[in-house]
User: Fold these one by one.
Assistant:
Number 1:
Amino acid sequence: MSGQIRKVLVIKLSALGDFVLALAAMRKIREAHRKAHITLLTTPPFEALARSCPYFNAVEIDGRPEGLSGWLELRRRLKAARYDRVYDLQTSAQSARIFYSLWPFPPEWSGNAFGCALRHANPDRDRMHTLERHADQLKYAGIWPDAPTEPGSAPPPDLSWILARQPKPPPVSGGVTPRPYVLFVPGGSAHRLDKRWPADHFGQLGRTLYDRGFDIVIIGGPQESAVARAIQKHVGQARDLTGRTDFARIAVLGAKAALAVGNDTGPLHLAAAAGAPTVVLFSKASDPALSAPRGHVAVLQADRLADLAVSEVMQAVNALLP
């Protein structure tokens, strides 16, 4: 059936951590439709990452149109494209609205919108980790018959395509070997402060690690530079890269890091997917069984992250460090 499909649309709108996890399903869609023209419908923050991704032939970024004119234009363009199949990996009210806007003759649609042709009707879908849920959705769609859907069984995303495009580092001069570094991701959504471990706790952890021979590299958005400065009060030598790393650079930093430690936020998912041994910190605001990064990952959770002791995080760090 997939051999007759020439034009495919994939929908993934946000957020970064979810987008990173969805890359595993995106790869499977490309493998199932090798000769198809595949377009990704997303939003502006993910444009550069998506355009560098080998799974898509085209990227469109108006997946959250504003106003009636925006919706009418999106509807007009999607109808004109005459897609043979749509994979809705967002499965939200927003993406369902896109589906309903294409009635009465929508394309063959894989998602959870009521009335779609390839509906993911598993009643447990909302209790599945994103990786297994996407695998199961593609199983329902008929392109992954042996999809791994047991908890913990689906493969993590593969970011080797990002790493392969990065220039090789210059050779070390003077015979001095750089110190290994630990990547800190202390930020997160500005409206979800309950998902952040305190900056002072990161600072205390950083001081211990620096004294053990590791450099500390802090990443995040420009709005998190104040958090980086708070960490530098404990570790003056910590490198503050907040606001100075795009998604590709974060992946490269993760691939080369001795360890990554951070909150449940997108850049940490990216570092973990790139291969960094990772300690991820969850509050009760999120369920790691549904959304934790996969790979060489230790998950710590506390109802209030302020109550998560530095010593407990250090134990997890020691278990992952060589």
Number 2:
Amino acid sequence: MPRSLLFASSIALSLTMIAPGCSSSPKQESTGEYIDSSAVTAEVKADLLAAPGLKSMQISVETYKGVVQLSGFVDSYDAKRHAGSIAMAVDGVKSVRNDLVVR
């Protein structure tokens, strides 16, 4: 086998083994998705902080593949609904899982 063909084959094999490591799976985000999720989380948190009447320090925000999960405590059902609508209004949010507890 000529040396150049052997070299090209080894490069092709290496690339096919590396490429799947950059893709996502149902249980794990790719690097790009992780960065997008982090940006969405930061924007949701900022919008919740800016919202008058919400005790946003008691609200936790997590994002996974565009799905935002809100957890923590609020004082009323209206505050829970308001927090959910704020999160849903952020670009990149596909859905909101509102697990806030009213106490």
Number 3:
Amino acid sequence: MAGNAPFELLSSMRDAAVELAAQGLTYSTQSAGVKNIAYIVNGVNFYCDARDVKEVSTCDSLMVIPQTKDWMRGLINSKGVLYSVTDLSIFAGFGRAIQANKGHLLLLSDSGAQSSLLVNRVIGFRYFEDANKIEDLESSLEAVDGLAPFVEEGYSVEGQNWYRLDVEKLLAAEQFREVQ
């Protein structure tokens, strides 16, 4: 009997889902929410929609490009595609560069931009509940410094604030596109 326990559990879950569906309701789990990728930039917690990120990578073989803004760290080659590398810490105005060999890269999905964001550390997937939404976001945006124009919402979970970086808005910003 103990060997069938997982199958019995799945069967009971399926039965419960079918019963709810018959009533016009749905059986939801945490994964039914929006999947986000969470990461840290200079001690500040950020996240973005997982669909905005094509791949998470390390920053190996960074090719430095002279005469660019200090936040434009260079280029990397990932599977034959060149991506620009933006140091989010410097771009935000935090004043400290991220050590490229210790940081993580978020290779962005937008094929027209071919950009990546250098962050201190990627946490992984995160889901947020509406009950934890920061209602007065403006009062806490000081922590995100120069990224404030690109933050649309935030959540407070277990005493930590998480800020959603709008990647599309960041990529469209003139400030982001002017690398010289």
